[in-house]
Design goal:
The structure holds 2 protein chains of 2 kinds. By secondary structure, chain A is α/β, with parallel strands linked by helices. Helix content of chain A is about 45%, strand content about 20%. Chain A has a 5-stranded parallel β-sheet, with helices on both faces. The longest helix of chain A has 14 residues. Chain B is of the alpha/beta class. In chain B, β7, α7 and β8 form a beta-alpha-beta unit. At the A-B interface, α1, β2 and α2 of A face α2, β3 and β4 of B.
Chain lengths: ~140, ~325
Amino acid sequence: MAKPRGTKRTPIRVLIAKPGLDGHDRGAKVVARALRDAGMEVIYAGLRQTPEEIVRAALEEDVDLIGLSILSGAHMALFPRVLALLKQQEGRPIPVFAGGIIPDEDARRLKKAGIRAIFGPGTSLEEIVSTAQALARRPA
Amino acid sequence: MTAATARLPAAAKAIVGGDRRVLARTITAVENGDPSADRVVRSLYRRSGRAPVVGVTGPLGVGKSSLVNALVGRLRSLGQTVGVIGVDPSSPFTGGSVLGDRIRLERRADDLGVFFRSMASRGAAGGVAAATREVSRLLDAAGFDVILVETVGSGQVDVAIRDIASTSIVVVVPHLGDEVQTLKAGLFEIADIFCVNKVDLPGAELAKRDLAEFVNLGGKPSGWAPPIVGTSAIDPTVGVDDLWNDVLAHEKFLDDSGERDRGERRRLSSEIVGLARDHVGRELMDRLEHDPSLRKLLDDVVARRIDPRTAADRLVRGGRRTR
């Protein structure tokens, strides 16, 4: 029943969540706001979400895309867990992008593991929005 | 497969059978007006009408999401399953939205007794989305015992929840205004229950008293006198049990008084007429744009040769002739 998303009638739905225990949610909020201004429906799940809660929310909300923000350093533990849980679901896994303080070496490994895009400090909002749009429209 | 589900479309069967992914995708299709959901929605209607639909409405920032979370907790402790719809506004400028009602939800990730769906209002007036009613029916057909609908932070005229909910809770907080506010038409008229949230704040007693005076001036036309409950978001044990008991009392009143049947008839007749109006409207718009003889009508109105009312009469008559 999938129609192309991203039109006025069928907006892109994206979940923005912060896995882990850090409380630094400014980045996630700025990105949520930018995606909203790009016409997306942003489900803001907020702080301290477990990978299980994130995947559960993504499923119930039927999102096209998941954005994870983390500044605690626990990305190598939490992101692969989210990806693994998503792979357990039927059908094509929902694409995931991420942002936060993630060292280059970790970013390379996470991309290999299946995180579709990783945005560090200084990334322009335009780049995040256009990448999110591309990922949501071509999830494969 | 039981005999009762044998004739349902596959997606409808999956929803009745508890498939949350199909439920989620069907909700998306309903929101998007996707024709693929049409048969599912039609076929599941008969399986709805079982769960109470409880609306939680009130101005922005009064604590609706926290209250919904507290009600979910209470219902789960009673062993009831809950479908929740949280509506937030879409931007009239970009169509985008930030849906934040989920943020207050506290529940175990493995608790399948709760299904929470955020919806953007997508330009609908009145505090809910156009698809909210049909989505609440899908949750009902999926077997959830209670459906909670949290509206957009409402203004004084945002009363569309009464067309969806069997019980409407209007949430306020202390210092929203003096007792004259309670006299004003609109939001306060639809309350089956008044909830004074943040009851730990100073002014709560005054707010309750003002509401009590309002209720004492006369209850609803049905004879129901809305109870007033104080709750506290920082201590979900304060008042939430009372609030839920009042919901049950109102649901019982609906059954005992015959008001449920009257309410259903009112809601459904307006839904049927609304759907028919959309249908006819789309047809007429199509004719006005594509039927050459009717397109001339528009030319005549633009050129001020005939007025819009006369043109509308002719459009409707022309529509009938071609049928």
